[in-house]
Design goal:
- It is a single chain.
- The protein is mainly alpha-helical.
- The protein contains two helices and no strands.
Length: about 80
C-alpha cells in the first residue's frame, strides 16, 4: 500500500472515525450515568444531574466532531 492511495486514505478515515467514536462513547456513558437518577426519582438534585448529563452528552458529541474535523483537515491537506 502506497501513501496517498485510496486504501491508505480509507484507513486514515477509518482511524479518525474510530477515535471520534471512542471519544463520544466515553462522554455518552458518563452523560447517561448522570441522567439515570432522574429516571428513578424526580427531585431537584436528579433534574440538575440530568441537565449536566445532557450537557456532557452534547459536549462530547461536539468535541468528538471537532477533533475528527481538525484531524481530517490536517491529515488530508497534503493529499
Amino acid at each position: 500500500m502506497e501513501i496517498g492511495s485510496k486504501e491508505h486514505k480509507r484507513l486514515l478515515q477509518k482511524a479518525i472515525f474510530k477515535t471520534a467514536l471512542k471519544t463520544f462513547t466515553l462522554g455518552a456513558v458518563i452523560g447517561i450515568m448522570l441522567i439515570i437518577p432522574s429516571l428513578v426519582r424526580e427531585n431537584s438534585f436528579s433534574s440538575l444531574m440530568a441537565n449536566i448529563g445532557l450537557t456532557v452528552l452534547f459536549g462530547s458529541f461536539a468535541y468528538a466532531s471537532w477533533i475528527a474535523w481538525k484531524k481530517s483537515k490536517s491529515v488530508f491537506k497534503d493529499f
